[in-house]
Amino acid sequence: MKEFANAKMDKWTLFYTILYIFFSIGMVIFMFNTDAPKFALITLGSILSGAFIFAYFMIPKISLGENAIHVKNAFVNFKISIQDISYVEKVEKLGLNIRTFGAGGVFGYFGYFNGNDVWYVTNIYKKVKITMKSGKIYMFSPENTEDFIQQITNLKSKI
Fold this sequence. Notes:
Largest sheet: 6 strands, mixed
Strand content: 25-35%
Shape: elongated
Order of helices and strands: EHHEEEEEEEEEH
Number of helices: 3
Helix content: 25-40%
């Protein structure tokens, strides 16, 4: 099984992550300095910290076996069957994407976007779109997109 490294965060993802850190720290300091109730301070700190940790643990490990793509993070562990893939392509254009449910910006873009598309993207400039025969779409961002696509194409040709 070959593991593919996730692409490093692009400049916007890094910017949003840093902005979130400063915003979170700023909000806690502001509430502390305004004598906010301790309950409110603890609640806000817990929510902001929890969201940050949740986003970090959404970063997946992507590996390719003989007949499936394996996707695993702290919350999911699933396989995408190679024989169920209709096509694989690199997506270079940026467009409007609507987050349906998930994390968008902090450490990457994870969850459901544009309705039912499943994203595990850490770099918006290195996206690979996998379209299933059922119409379901998966988006990943391996560091080496060309190798990832080539490996999947090679496995599809053997089936």
